[in-house]
Amino acid sequence: MKKYVLSFLIALTTTQPVFAESFVVGTVEAQRGHQSSGYLNVPPGIDAGTMIPITVAHGSGDGPTLALIAGTHGYEYPGITALQRIRKSLDPGELSGTIIMVHIANVPSFLGRTIYYSPADGKNLNRVYPGDPEGSLSQRIAHTITQEVIEKADYLIDLHAGDGNELLRPYVYMPLTGETELDAAAKGLAMSFGLDHIVIDEAPLRSIDDSLYTDQTALVRGIPAITTETGQMGSNDDYWVDMAEAGIWNVLRHLKMIPGAEEINEGITWLIDYQVVRSPQDGIFRAAVRDGYTIAKGATLGVLVDFFGDEIQEIRAPFSGVVNYVIGTPPVSEGEPVAMISRIQPD
User: Could you list the residue range(s) of the whole structural domain that residue 140 is in?
Assistant: First the structure.
């Protein structure tokens, strides 16, 4: 399937031929009508290496290539479990096109139960794309995923959840680039995933060499991409996993990759101008709101106290809007999020 190419970029693609009898990602090869699982090897460099578990499902019919990436942050479990379920339930004989499932992008963070940052190098994997083959482990993981997964995709979904410290109401980040076809394709992904809150992200596209985020790395290559958030506080409860799994199946129907009619997502609340509110210093945060609350400009999001429990300051909403997430565990570090809020898009 032809990628959507941004007018100001030269498309850098390695998409495999539509009619290929097999599809290869790293050392994992799937024949037409079959799926195969294995590992992407991230070799040692300036620090230890790792292995990234993946599955390639190569359909019996022709169609696009969809990349599904879970575990970018290792404490965000619903997407990881949803992909395990998809792998068990999917019939490649009924699939048109190819699915690349990255089961756990950040294995060190997953095994270390860390939020945001890898215990291997202290870096946030979702801030180091497109990576560096000579860099630290997170940078080498990003480079491997860019080369072996993102650049072989026609569509991409980065599956996130509320991290181990985040009370989060499920939503989708839907980036807009100003490129009509690319934006329409991303909107199709966002709506078909089925969540009732969609955050329109109009941040400018970054450069191809400094894309930082998984979805931006796809977008600057002309590949429609979204980021989904389903779950909170490190929970792997079926409620959150079911939500992620249902979203993936409906995207597959939307893309005509599996039989069945797409379920139409009605009643979406469209959100704009999101802002992450950050802590001014280290301390303990006591939230005064919950995920999904509406809040007025200047109202209290929470109170920051010191390690003795004495108040440092109240942290207030910069504008009226919806609380997408709020930190639900006590520790906060200077510069780290305490909440994210968005405005409701006017009719």
Answer: 22-254
Neighbouring C-beta atoms of residue 256, cutoff 10 Å: 14
Work out the average pLDDT over 230-242: 97
* 9 within domain boundaries: no
Cβ atoms within 10 A of the Cβ of 148, count? 22
Are residue 189 and residue 295 in the same domain, yes or no?
no
Q: Is the pLDDT of residue 9 over 60?
A: no
- DSSP alpha helices (H): ranges in the chain? 78-89, 107-112, 137-148, 180-192, 214-219, 238-254
Residue 16 forms part of a structural domain: no
- The alpha-carbon radius of gyration of the chain (Å, integer) is 20
pLDDT tens sequence across 60-92: 999 999 999 999 999 999 999 999 999 999 999
Please check whether residue 280 is in contact with residue 334, taking contact to mean a CB–CB distance below 8 angstroms: yes
4 Cβ contact partners less than 8 Å away, ≥ 6 residues apart: 179, 181, 182, 185, 222, 223, 224
What is the rounded CA–CA span in Å between residue 257 and residue 68? 14
Helix intervals (H) in 204-300? 214-219, 238-254
* In-domain check, residue 149: yes
Query: Two tokens at 202?
Result: 């109009």
pTM: 0.94
**Which neighbouring-strand residues pair with 35?**
57
Query: pLDDT, tens digit, for every residue of 178-218?
Result: 999 999 999 999 999 999 999 999 999 999 999 999 999 99
How is residue 2 written in tokens?
């032809």
Name the DSSP letter for residue 115. S
